[in-house]
Design a protein that fits this description.
The chain starts with a strand and ends with a strand. A hairpin with a 4-residue loop joins strand 21 and strand 22. It is mainly beta and 234 residues long. It has one helix at residues 220-225, and strands at 3-6, 10-11, 14-15, 20-23, 28-30, 33-34, 39-42, 47-49, 52-53, 58-61, 66-68, 71-72, 77-80, 83-85, 88-89, 93-96, 101-116, 121-137, 143-148, 155-158, 163-168, 173-178, 182-189, 195-201, 207-213, 232-233.
Length: 234
């Protein structure tokens, strides 16, 4: 059990069970590997570059701290109160809380998950070609920018939000109508062909946005998983 600090800047550290790396103002940690039970904490003014978080490892990015190019593996967790850029969620969880923001996150692997709560925000998300990815939003307006590479296996959970309709546009957008008369529009890039956005209950008082096959287009995998859903068109 060792506590490391940056500054002085740290590079290529391997944090084992009980090890802690404190990245303080003006400090930079590069190529850190966080193993089971290890913790990296990035304070305001600190920067983490190319961190890899393995099973039960944790990274916490405080307000004013920055994490760039983090990779999160199965069972690992990154908690963001500051800023994360280009995080790759292979199978773990990235939680964005308070006024934290996640830019350009890739989600997939073995049920990778991006969880945006409170006043947290996510700008641009991409679903990986491998595995299943999900985005959980405490506020439907917390997701901005683009949603790229959405496939039938992936979903967006609008927690505690009751969706009453979706409008699929021919212009690569989908408008979600919720809480009676409120709406949000998402921009889609490289959506799986011959699919459209529909919705279903998440079983916990919220709504999952999912992709289902367009009626009349053969897509056996999508039909088996989800079946038809309510939908509208422009």
């Amino acid at each position: 059990m060792t506590t490391f600090k940056a500054p002085p800047n740290q590079s290529d550290l391997v944090l084992q069970n009980g090890d802690i790396l404190l990245v303080e103002a003006m400090g930079t940690a590069t190529n850190t590997q966080i193993k089971m039970g290890g913790l990296e904490r990035v304070f305001a003014g600190g920067t983490s570059e190319n961190t890899t978080i393995d099973l039960l490892g944790r990274e916490r990015v405080d307000a004013g701290g920055t994490s760039n190019h983090t990779t999160i593996h199965n069972g690992a967790r990154e908690i963001v109160f500051g800023t994360s850029n280009n995080t790759d969620i292979v199978g773990g969880i990235e939680v964005v809380e308070l006024r934290g923001v996640a830019h350009d996150t890739t989600i997939g692997g073995n049920f990778g998950r991006l969880d945006v709560t409170g006043a947290g925000r996510a700008h641009n998300v991409t679903f990986s070609d491998k595995g299943i990815g999900s985005v959980e939003l405490g506020n439907p307006l917390a997701l901005t920018g683009t949603i790229t590479n959405w496939h039938i296996r992936d979903f967006i959970d609008l927690e505690e939000t009751r969706v009453t309709g979706v409008i699929n546009s021919m212009h690569n957008t989908v408008t979600v109508i919720y809480d009676q008369n409120r709406s949000v529009t998402y921009t889609l890039v490289d959506q799986q062909p011959d699919t459209e956005v529909t919705f279903r209950s998440d079983g916990h008082g919220g709504t999952d946005l999912i992709l289902t096959p367009i009626v009349g287009v053969q897509h056996q995998e999508a039909a088996i998983q989800f079946g038809p859903g309510p939908q509208f068109h422009l």
